[in-house]
Amino acid sequence: MIEAAGLDGCELLAELHARAFDKPWSASEISKLLENPAVFALISRDSEPRGFVLAWAAAGDAEILTVAVVPEARRRGVGASLVTSAGVAALVRGAASMHLEVAEDNDAARALYAKLGYEEAGRRAAYYAGEGGAVDAIVMRRTLPRPVV
Protein backbone atom coordinates (compact mmCIF):
# COMPACT_ATOMS: atom_id res chain seq x y z
CA MET A 1 0.00 0.00 0.00
CA ILE A 2 1.22 3.48 -0.84
CA GLU A 3 -0.13 6.44 1.08
CA ALA A 4 0.66 10.10 1.66
CA ALA A 5 3.00 10.98 4.51
CA GLY A 6 2.92 14.35 6.23
CA LEU A 7 4.89 16.34 8.72
CA ASP A 8 3.88 13.94 11.50
CA GLY A 9 5.77 11.18 9.67
CA CYS A 10 9.16 12.90 9.46
CA GLU A 11 10.80 10.73 12.14
CA LEU A 12 9.73 7.56 10.33
CA LEU A 13 10.87 8.93 6.97
CA ALA A 14 14.25 9.81 8.48
CA GLU A 15 14.56 6.28 9.92
CA LEU A 16 13.82 4.77 6.50
CA HIS A 17 16.26 7.15 4.82
CA ALA A 18 18.96 6.16 7.32
CA ARG A 19 18.40 2.48 6.52
CA ALA A 20 18.62 3.18 2.78
CA PHE A 21 21.57 5.60 2.55
CA ASP A 22 25.02 6.09 4.04
CA LYS A 23 24.41 9.83 4.39
CA PRO A 24 20.84 10.02 5.70
CA TRP A 25 18.63 13.08 5.89
CA SER A 26 17.45 14.05 9.37
CA ALA A 27 13.84 14.39 10.42
CA SER A 28 14.42 18.13 10.66
CA GLU A 29 15.69 18.29 7.08
CA ILE A 30 12.73 16.28 5.82
CA SER A 31 10.35 18.42 7.86
CA LYS A 32 11.73 21.62 6.34
CA LEU A 33 11.17 20.20 2.86
CA LEU A 34 7.61 19.11 3.67
CA GLU A 35 6.77 22.57 4.99
CA ASN A 36 6.91 23.68 1.36
CA PRO A 37 3.40 23.15 -0.06
CA ALA A 38 4.86 21.98 -3.39
CA VAL A 39 6.63 19.06 -1.70
CA PHE A 40 4.93 15.75 -1.00
CA ALA A 41 5.91 12.35 0.41
CA LEU A 42 4.49 8.93 -0.29
CA ILE A 43 5.27 5.93 1.87
CA SER A 44 5.10 2.25 0.92
CA ARG A 45 4.17 -0.21 3.60
CA ASP A 46 2.78 -3.69 4.09
CA SER A 47 3.08 -4.95 7.63
CA GLU A 48 6.09 -2.62 8.01
CA PRO A 49 7.19 0.55 6.20
CA ARG A 50 9.30 -0.41 3.17
CA GLY A 51 10.31 2.94 1.73
CA PHE A 52 9.24 6.36 0.64
CA VAL A 53 9.57 8.93 -2.11
CA LEU A 54 9.87 12.67 -1.59
CA ALA A 55 9.11 14.95 -4.53
CA TRP A 56 7.82 18.37 -5.46
CA ALA A 57 5.54 19.61 -8.21
CA ALA A 58 5.13 23.25 -9.24
CA ALA A 59 4.70 25.33 -12.38
CA GLY A 60 4.15 22.30 -14.60
CA ASP A 61 7.32 20.47 -13.59
CA ALA A 62 8.16 17.97 -10.87
CA GLU A 63 11.29 16.49 -9.33
CA ILE A 64 11.93 13.38 -7.31
CA LEU A 65 14.13 14.48 -4.42
CA THR A 66 14.80 11.05 -2.97
CA VAL A 67 13.62 7.46 -3.17
CA ALA A 68 14.51 5.41 -0.11
CA VAL A 69 13.84 1.67 0.02
CA VAL A 70 14.98 -0.39 3.01
CA PRO A 71 17.48 -3.14 2.08
CA GLU A 72 15.14 -6.08 2.74
CA ALA A 73 12.49 -4.62 0.40
CA ARG A 74 14.79 -3.99 -2.57
CA ARG A 75 14.26 -5.80 -5.86
CA ARG A 76 10.58 -6.36 -5.00
CA GLY A 77 9.06 -3.50 -6.99
CA VAL A 78 8.87 -1.06 -4.09
CA GLY A 79 11.06 1.56 -5.77
CA ALA A 80 9.19 1.24 -9.05
CA SER A 81 5.82 1.62 -7.35
CA LEU A 82 7.02 4.66 -5.40
CA VAL A 83 8.45 6.39 -8.49
CA THR A 84 5.31 5.60 -10.49
CA SER A 85 3.08 6.86 -7.67
CA ALA A 86 5.11 10.06 -7.41
CA GLY A 87 4.55 10.60 -11.13
CA VAL A 88 0.80 10.17 -10.70
CA ALA A 89 0.78 12.53 -7.71
CA ALA A 90 2.77 15.10 -9.70
CA LEU A 91 0.42 14.75 -12.65
CA VAL A 92 -2.56 15.40 -10.37
CA ARG A 93 -0.73 18.52 -9.16
CA GLY A 94 -0.45 19.78 -12.75
CA ALA A 95 3.05 18.64 -13.69
CA ALA A 96 3.68 17.71 -17.31
CA SER A 97 7.16 16.30 -16.72
CA MET A 98 9.27 14.93 -13.91
CA HIS A 99 13.00 14.78 -13.46
CA LEU A 100 15.50 13.38 -11.00
CA GLU A 101 19.22 13.10 -10.39
CA VAL A 102 21.04 9.83 -9.92
CA ALA A 103 24.70 9.05 -9.33
CA GLU A 104 26.40 7.90 -12.49
CA ASP A 105 27.69 4.79 -10.71
CA ASN A 106 24.25 3.76 -9.39
CA ASP A 107 23.54 1.28 -12.18
CA ALA A 108 20.53 -0.32 -10.46
CA ALA A 109 18.71 2.99 -9.97
CA ARG A 110 19.55 4.19 -13.48
CA ALA A 111 18.18 0.92 -14.92
CA LEU A 112 14.99 1.29 -12.87
CA TYR A 113 14.43 4.87 -14.00
CA ALA A 114 15.09 3.95 -17.64
CA LYS A 115 12.60 1.08 -17.33
CA LEU A 116 10.03 3.59 -16.07
CA GLY A 117 10.55 5.88 -19.06
CA TYR A 118 13.14 8.33 -17.78
CA GLU A 119 15.79 9.38 -20.27
CA GLU A 120 19.14 11.03 -19.69
CA ALA A 121 18.70 14.78 -20.05
CA GLY A 122 21.91 16.17 -18.61
CA ARG A 123 24.88 15.72 -16.36
CA ARG A 124 26.19 17.57 -13.32
CA ALA A 125 29.92 17.05 -13.08
CA ALA A 126 31.32 15.93 -9.72
CA TYR A 127 27.92 16.40 -8.05
CA TYR A 128 28.17 13.63 -5.46
CA ALA A 129 31.06 13.17 -3.05
CA GLY A 130 32.15 9.56 -2.97
CA GLU A 131 34.77 7.55 -1.12
CA GLY A 132 36.68 7.07 -4.36
CA GLY A 133 36.19 10.67 -5.46
CA ALA A 134 33.43 12.80 -6.87
CA VAL A 135 30.75 11.18 -9.01
CA ASP A 136 28.72 12.89 -11.72
CA ALA A 137 24.95 13.20 -11.36
CA ILE A 138 22.90 12.09 -14.32
CA VAL A 139 19.75 14.15 -14.77
CA MET A 140 16.92 12.01 -16.09
CA ARG A 141 13.55 13.29 -17.26
CA ARG A 142 10.29 11.95 -18.55
CA THR A 143 7.08 13.42 -19.83
CA LEU A 144 4.16 12.44 -17.65
CA PRO A 145 1.35 10.78 -19.57
CA ARG A 146 -1.80 12.84 -20.01
CA PRO A 147 -4.93 10.97 -19.00
CA VAL A 148 -7.44 10.24 -21.74
CA VAL A 149 -10.93 11.35 -20.69
List the helices and strands and how they pair.
Blueprint: E1 2-5, H1 10-20, H2 27-34, E2 39-45, E3 49-58, E4 61-69, H3 78-92, E5 97-103, H4 107-115, E6 119-128, E7 135-143
Parallel strand pairs: 4-5
Antiparallel strand pairs: 1-2, 2-3, 3-4, 5-7, 6-7
Quick take:
With 149 residues, the protein is an alpha+beta fold. Helix content is 29%, strand content 38%. The chain has a seven-stranded mixed sheet.
Question: What does this protein structure show overall?
Answer:
The chain is of the alpha+beta class. It has four helices and seven strands; from the N terminus they run βααβββαβαββ. The protein has helices at residues 10-20, 27-34, 78-92, 107-115, and strands at 2-5, 39-45, 49-58, 61-69, 97-103, 119-128, 135-143. A seven-stranded mixed beta sheet has the order 1-2-3-4-5-7-6. A hairpin with a 2-residue loop joins strand 3 and strand 4. Helix 1 (10-20) crosses helix 2 (27-34). The longest helix has 15 residues, at 78-92. It is globular and about 50 Å long. The two termini are 26 Å apart.
- What is the end-to-end distance? 26 Å
Rg, rounded, reads 15 Å
Number of strands: 7
> What's the tally of helices?
4
How are the strands of the largest sheet arranged? 1-2-3-4-5-7-6
* Helix share, percent: 25-40%
Unreliable runs, pLDDT <50, ≥5 residues?
none
Tell the overall outline: globular
Order of helices and strands: EHHEEEHEHEE
Given the helix and strand composition, which structural class is it?
A: alpha+beta
Largest sheet: 7 strands, mixed
Arithmetic mean pLDDT: 95
Strand content: 35-45%
